[in-house]
Design brief:
370 residues; alpha/beta; GMP Synthetase, Chain A, domain 3; 2 domains; 31% strand
Length: 370
């Protein structure tokens, strides 16, 4: 499957991206960049890293053979601005660095707020940049660029396959550069709404299980896996949630949980009150050591609703304490009612808002129920 993905990707690139369409640069003077990275350099400079497939790998994929050589190489350049670093990198390789097929943009969590804002501005202004690229944050861009997946496929293909399959993991981690660009253009992201998947290199390749939430262009908090699932419920991105509960000394599991939600805002004594209503749907695992009856299912639904409600509320309060609002509560209200309250007032009120979560769980498949 991975090999077919890699072959398909390169066919598109070779036919359209490197053919010179829209550019007078010859193919042999152009280098294809698949992963683009940004990290802080010395003295407030910005380091840029470019992962480029080798000609050996391109030949092996297009010919259907296995490559025994190195699949990619990395070019690194540092500059006072992203533009200067990019120009320096092109001079170093003596080729045009083609960004029209970048699959991943990786941002170091150590970038300052000013550097992150500068990088985003440069990316949004770069006409040759494909803003459909996935984005992710990491603690070490260098380790990310050095790691080779255990499946012996190029990292860009592994990451592309992971992000492009929303139901292959518990949470849909798809976040693209164009989404960040839209958020920044609407002035939502700098304070509250900017989030990305958190990716780390490990011995087997890459670990993608968490979300990092930004505030003022800097990471405010890296959520745990459980908190990431909770945020996914709120954003409609959790596709395969799970929950374990205890009912009458029996451990019961609920899987494949998805959620829908809506909220309303009320003002009381000058304080914002957010009322969130959530509807969860899941499958009850068959319990081999107990008999399930219809009334049992209703009891399990009630217990599950209580536990999920407490989890989601805890995650919301944590995000609120860190000054983040990735679901944009209140922001939308200000858009809908500009005559009532300004967005700035809503942002300030959200920091001290009272949040109430009401939940309902519906079990749609119960295995063996009598």
């Amino acid at each position: 499957m991975m090999r077919r993905l890699w072959f398909g990707l390169l066919c598109v690139v070779l036919i359209f991206g490197l053919s010179g369409c829209g550019s007078s640069v010859p193919v042999d003077e152009r280098a294809l960049v698949l992963i683009l990275g940004f990290a802080p350099g010395q003295g407030n400079t910005i380091r840029m890293l470019f992962q480029i497939p080798t000609s050996t790998e391109l030949t092996s994929v297009t010919s259907g053979t296995n490559s025994s050589g190195k699949q990619f190489y990395t070019v690194e350049a540092t500059g006072a601005t992203p533009g200067r670093a990019f120009a320096k990198a092109q001079t170093m390789v003596g080729q045009d660095l083609y960004l029209g097929q970048v699959q991943l943009i990786a941002f170091s969590s150590k970038l300052s707020a000013a550097q992150m804002a500068q990088v985003q501005d440069w990316l949004n202004r770069l006409g040759t940049m494909d803003n459909s690229a996935y984005v992710a944050a990491t603690s070490s861009v260098d380790r990310l660029f050095e790691r080779q997946p255990a499946a012996q496929i190029p990292p860009a293909v592994y990451i592309y396959d992971t992000f492009s399959c929303p139901r292959c993991s518990a949470v849909d981690f798809q976040q693209r550069q164009w989404t960040l660009e839209t958020q920044l253009a609407n002035d939502l992201a700098p304070d509250h709404s900017m989030w990305m998947p958190w990716i780390e290199a490990n011995q087997s390749g890459f670990r993608i299980a968490n979300v990092v939430v930004y505030r003022h262009f800097q990471p405010a908090i890296v959520l745990t896996r459980a908190q990431t699932v909770d945020l996914g419920y709120l954003m409609g991105r959790t596709k395969k949630g799970d929950l374990m509960i205890t009912w009458r000394n029996h451990t019961i599991g609920i899987r494949s949980i998805v959620a829908s939600s809506h909220y309303r805002i009320r003002w009381q004594s000058g304080r914002m009150h957010i009322f969130l209503t959530m509807h969860f749907v899941g499958t009850l695992e068959e319990a081999v050591d107990m008999q399930l009856h219809a009334d049992t299912v209703k009891s399990v639904e009630h217990l599950a609703a209580q536990k999920l409600g407490a989890q989601v509320l805890s995650t919301l309060v944590l995000l609120q304490q860190h000054g983040t609002n990735p679901v944009d509560y209140g922001e939308r209200y200000a858009w809908w009612h500009p005559e009532t309250v300004s967005r700035q007032v809503m942002r300030q009120a959200y920091a001290h808002a009272d949040i109430t979560v009401s939940t309902r769980v519906q079990i749609t498949n119960t295995g063996a129920v009598t």
